[in-house]
Specification:
Two copies of one chain form a homodimer. Chain A is of the alpha/beta class and about 400 residues long. Chain A is built from 17 helices and 14 strands. The first copy, chain A, has two domains: about 10-205 and about 325-390, Rossmann fold (3-Layer(aba) Sandwich), CATH 3.40.50; about 235-320, formyl-coa transferase, domain 3, CATH 3.30.1540.10.
Chain lengths: ~400, ~400
Amino acid sequence: MVAPLANIKVVDLTRILSGPFCTMLLGDMGADVVKIEGPDDGDPIRQLGTIVNGFSTYFASFNRNKRSITLDLRSTAGKEVLSELIQKADVLVENFRPGVLDAMGLTAERLESLNPRLIVASINGYGSSGPYSQRPAFDFIAQAMSGFMSLNGGPNDGPTRSGVPITDLVAGLYSAYGIVNALRVRDLTGRGQRIEAAMVDSIMSMFAWYASDHLATGNPPVRSGNRHPIAAPYGMFAASDGGIAVAPSTEAVLDKFLAEIGLSNLRDDPRFASNALRMKHRAELDVIINERVATDTQANWISRLNRAGVPCGVVQELKEAFTDPQTLHQEMVISVEHPGHGAIRMLGFPVKLSDTPCCVRLPAPEHGAHNAEIAEDWQLACRDLIVSAMPKITA
Amino acid sequence: MVAPLANIKVVDLTRILSGPFCTMLLGDMGADVVKIEGPDDGDPIRQLGTIVNGFSTYFASFNRNKRSITLDLRSTAGKEVLSELIQKADVLVENFRPGVLDAMGLTAERLESLNPRLIVASINGYGSSGPYSQRPAFDFIAQAMSGFMSLNGGPNDGPTRSGVPITDLVAGLYSAYGIVNALRVRDLTGRGQRIEAAMVDSIMSMFAWYASDHLATGNPPVRSGNRHPIAAPYGMFAASDGGIAVAPSTEAVLDKFLAEIGLSNLRDDPRFASNALRMKHRAELDVIINERVATDTQANWISRLNRAGVPCGVVQELKEAFTDPQTLHQEMVISVEHPGHGAIRMLGFPVKLSDTPCCVRLPAPEHGAHNAEIAEDWQLACRDLIVSAMPKITA
């Protein structure tokens, strides 16, 4: 059994979220990820989120399967070590603002001369060129500019962002996909290349029918909150002890839904004879359905409707979602021992490989913990330079 | 120049969205994707979304770079053709409800005996085993059950779904990532394996600090709408001609923001001396900032603030986002000629590879257009069976 990215060496210059998520995805697949951090505070995320026993749980969750080396990249010594790492690496990942890598002396030409087999991946807000390339990137702004926010929220609310920084994460995942594809090209040609994912582009690619309908018609999309923009009944209904989410997405599923709630007769009601009519009389329809749904509990409806083939669930809070039997079955909440800081719980692996499953080989690293180990493993000729480049070794 | 997935043959049994998105991502990287459709209506998406000149623009947007073959998989002939395709393929992708592939006779053992090098990828709602595996999958329900909805919306709104079916798309992308990783393992070992991504797991993996904070503390996350849950100022402010989104994410960026709007003196105001105090006095702070922001236009603030290093943008509607100069520069809206139906506009490629860029080799296929072509290209021995398996050849 061999991990997909076994023997792939990654020089990780990323910080905060989108880049570290990308390199964690590579590490989860077995890559040897060397996180380069400044000798002072390192990745700012080390200081953010809930700190438990002196360690950021947020940092822990996005930096497993990595090792940390401290280099002062403003110093000649630090640059020399980085150059040697780059010569020995397969992949370089960065999420600086476009141009920063160049300013560090790592121009395309320099990287090419150091290592023509290197894959250089960049994650940014808008792209590495073009009118907005120099704007600082931030998820909330990417959600706003991309059009994503304009599609979220009810018709009476303003556009609403997703609470989670979805554009960071989707761009990180696209980058990981691009990197593994570029590795495949290199297997065939022996040559590296540059890959890039922008946060705005990444989330745009996920607009589904909103994009295709708008591009075909020019019509503005309808912001419909938790209701379906073009199908009824659909949305939240009130069971006796709380809401249920029901999505009868086709006529066939609608038949099953109406049968299970004892309202098959609505099929004969002229007000509800077609989807267009049901959209028109949605308020009346919802009242009738809610009367029936109120006669049983959330749990019973979820069981009954799903058994009948009707997609149904509840809006779970994180507490419920993370203790849900299916979540546990999928091992989506894992506990990782961090020596000196205890066990830290985090999310598991969303993509399951039967023969080479992702696993936690390493907890998130202490700041600069692997200076000596990496010098040894990567057989760095300039290892003597490392010492002066890392005044704050903690391990 | 060789595409990353050149020479990779994909048997595509997927339909609707999550699976077709996955196989389109593979096709965009150069894979030979053969979309298997029933001889009757084919992928239901062919009938949905805006139809232009007899072709669904929604279908077009998620099925480029594929060819279509019609097989009646309930017939012996259809099953025989599928078996031969599987023998000659590298990857099989499906998004049926768990168990359907088995019921079709394609058990793990059967697939293994047909082709031990095959990578079998499954995309589903909850996972292929566990208490909810038999529930029908649907994006809205996955958004609800995963906890995603509970993080979206303002403190006074209920939990809010994302308008776009984000769990379908993220699961599709994770699957594509898993497949390319599994191809890498196969390059090393000669063996295929099964990969799987569930919609609920996929979106959960993107909860960032909400997940790590909750798992560390047990505290319920704050649903804060367009405001930042733990930083102020942050959010929407009112320029003279409309709102601007501003994200001063660190103290250093906040300094830049206050300087640019001429309010550096607020740093000396004891009400705003720390982030905690600013959160407490957020309403007052927002009033003061809005007074200044109202003195200039959206466009000017966007230009001024970004130049000063403060992430800033506007909430763009799709019309604005898709005609934005940066979007055009990134070639994120492309036009693809569909013979017989004219040009259809769709979103471009979010991950850019410098040497082997994604491209549209093929428009989305007519239903069953490639029966003969695939029989020839894949050198199918049982090509005679195809004729009887596809009564509705259109090409």
